[in-house]
Structures are given as C-alpha cells and as structure tokens.
Design a protein that fits this description.
With 364 residues, the protein is of the alpha/beta class. Helices cover 46% and strands 7% of the residues. The chain is built from 13 helices and 5 strands. α12 links the parallel β3 and β4. α1 crosses α2 and α10 crosses α13. The longest helix has 39 residues. The N terminus is likely disordered.
C-alpha cells in the first residue's frame, strides 16, 4: 500500500503550477490568466519572457484575491490593484487572507484605473463581462491583442449591466452557488425584490439564454441560478408575508404543462413588500386544481404564467369559475404574446407593471 500523500513532509516546497493547472485551480480559462498578466501585471513571480509561466502558491493566492474582488463587482483593474497590494504583506498573511473570510474587501476600491468604466468598448469586453480575459478565448494572436467577445465563449454578454449583475454573472459562470446566494440576498435586501429581479437577475438569465441560443450550452448555469433565486426570493416573501387571515388573496400559478415559475416567485416577493397577500400554486397547475383553489379561497385576483406558447391556452381562462365577489384574471409571460384573451383578462407585461397593477386593484 502506498503511503498517504497528505499531509506533506515538514518543510516540503509547494509545487509550481503551469498556466493550465493554475487555470483549472481557479476555474477560469488559461487565456484569462495570460490576459491578467499582460494587462494588469498580475502574473507569475519572476517570469522570464520566452519561458513557460509557472505559478507559485503565493501567485495563486494573489489571483484568488483578484477573483474574489471581481465577484464582488470590482473592475478588473481595481481588483488587480487590490490583489497586488498584498505583495507588501508577508506570504503567510497573504495565504491566510485567501483562506479566511477576509479574502476580498466588502466594498473594493473603485479608484480611477486609467480607463473610463463607462467606455462602451470596455463595457462590451470580457473585463466587464463575467469571465475576465475571455475575449482571449482563442488564445493570443501574437500581437498581444485580444479577440472579439463571442456569445459562445467563456463569457456572458452583459452590456450596460450594473456591478451587481456582473458579479452575479461571474459567480454563475463559476457555478459558485454560495456566492450567487450571497449576492442575491444582498441585492434583495438593499434594493428590494423588484429592482433585484429587473436589474440583477433578469440580465443574467437573459445572457444565459442568449448563450444557449447561440451554441446550446449553459443549461447548468441557468439551473444553478434558478435554484438560488427560488429560496432567496421565497424567503423575502415569507419574511414579509402579511398577517391578514381574512384577506382575499392573490392566486399565483403556472398554466397546465408550464414548469417555469421563477417570475412568480419574484412577483410574490414584490407583492409581499407592498403588503399584498399571495398564495402560490406552483408549476403545472391542472385546470381542476385551479378551479378548486379559486372556489375555496375566493381570491381577489388570479395570475397565470405561461413561458411557452404551448402552455398559453385561452380555453383554460374561459373555464375558470364565476364567483361572488368576482375576481380579476391576469396573464403573464411571453407564451401569451400572440394569444387572443377573453374579456376581463389583462396581460401583465413586466414585474413592475404586475406589482403596480395588482397592488392598485387590491389596496383600494
């Protein structure tokens, strides 16, 4: 039997890693590390031109500090400057910073980096996307210039998105669920459910959808983000759920055959913030179950979501029971775009419109 390889012998030197090995360790593309080295000077210690790059443990610790700052929303230049400032600290302190909770500042410095962050060319580059340096995804072109960003590369296109959305995109690409959770919780707590959805979640989901449409990849990213959004927005709705047992609720449900419910979770949280009582019925609600829920709860309104056109069935709307007092019927989602709706049925085009329309109908 071979002896255990861990722990190493006292005083054993850490092996130096190649670019490919270091990239795997960090979960980024090798071209990203070359770009960080070329643009921001954060590369392997003592690298000699013409020789292979080799990263020491301290080099990797410094790169991890930069990566954490990027996820927090810092620009690449500021993240690199922050990580490089650790050069002045002893190596042990640097490694301890990465291993502990202080790996990145709560709010990284955003001093001027020599480039205007609002420059359109910069906003469309991978530096302000999610996988920094991924416009090098085809490798260096020999002149030190990066290639053009492509949807199918290691990048989410987020032109015009804010820091929170870019940070979420980076964490999502890395499949870093703990960071995705934390960023979502911060966005909801600071900006509210509406803004967190419209300004942070939707841009990232749209970019993932664009990536999938381009080359069929990224389903795992969408699933991870969705699995994080559900509990975060659900917890917001639960924490603010109005305590009015006799109030007529809003019923939120997905059409029969419709499995997407994420926007309904966001709507529930946004309505809870306004004091509106909601009851979610979840995905794929059979017509019989929907009719039974309406008769038992006497809702003030019913909202039915359809993501896919095949799930948007106007006959289901016509089959809803008549109650006294009557309820209002709303539909939402792109599946309804080309469907002729029955009378007294209104379409909700966005989360903000839905929140305002329903609140006005209920809180009168």
């Amino acid at each position: 039997m071979q002896p255990e390889a861990w722990p190493p012998a006292p005083g054993a030197a850490e092996p130096w890693l190649s670019v490919a090995a270091a990239a795997r360790r960090l979960g980024v593309a090798p071209a990203t590390l070359r770009t960080w080295d070329r643009r921001y000077g954060i590369g392997p210690t003592g690298h000699t031109p013409g020789r292979h790059r080799r990263y020491s443990a301290e080099d990797l610790a410094r790169l991890e500090l930069m990566q954490r700052a990027l996820v927090r929303g810092a620009s690449p230049a500021d993240a690199a400057a922050y990580a490089m400032s650790a050069v002045r600290s002893p190596a042990g302190a640097l490694l301890a910073a990465v291993a502990g909770n202080g790996g990145a500042p709560a709010r990284p410095s955003h001093g001027h980096s020599g480039r205007d962050e609002n420059d359109s060319s910069d906003n469309n580059s991978s530096d302000n996307g999610c996988d920094d340096g991924s416009n090098d995804s085809n490798g260096d072109n020999g002149n030190g210039d990066a290639g053009r960003v492509r949807v199918g590369g290691r990048v989410l296109r987020l032109p015009g998105a804010g820091r929170a959305a870019r940070g979420l995109g980076r964490a999502a690409l890395a499949l870093d669920a703990p960071t995705v959770y934390r960023l979502l919780e911060e966005a909801v707590a600071t900006a509210g459910a509406e803004s967190a959805w419209d300004d942070v979640v939707r841009p990232v989901l749209a970019a993932i959808g664009e990536r999938w449409a381009h080359n069929g990849s990224g389903v795992e990213i969408e699933h991870l983000v969705s699995e994080c959004v559900h509990p975060v927005f659900g917890a917001r709705a639960a924490a603010l759920r109005p305590t009015a047992p006799d109030a007529r609720p809003i019923l939120l449900g997905a059409m029969p055959g419709e499995l997407h419910t994420l926007p309904l979770v966001a709507l529930s949280a946004a309505l809870a913030e306004r004091g509106v009582v909601c009851r979610g019925l979840g995905a794929n609600v059979p017509l019989e179950a929907l009719v039974a829920a309406i008769r038992r709860t006497a809702p003030v309104a019913v909202v039915l979501w359809a993501q896919q056109p095949g799930a948007a069935d106007a006959d289901v709307l016509e089959s809803l029971p008549r109650t006294r007092p009557r309820f209002r019927t709303f539909v939402a989602g792109p599946g309804w775009d080309d469907v002729e709706l029955p009378e007294r049925t209104a379409r909700l085009p966005s989360l903000r419109a839905a929140t305002a329309t329903i609140s006005d109908a209920v809180l009168v």
